[in-house]
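Write out this protein's structure.
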Amino acid sequence: MPHFTQARPMTAKALRKPRNPVVAPALLRQAGRHQGPHARQSAQSQLRHALQDLHPPTPHD
């Protein structure tokens, strides 16, 4: 069994930096407010109506 006479020397592990430089800003980022489903649905319907006004459907016989 080995006998230790001295403690191991301290290494500079106190200054840890992220491996990826994008990690730190990504952890601080917060999500913004989401729009409700009604805003998306109304925008889609407005677009559909605008396209129908520009190009009305042709009647098929």
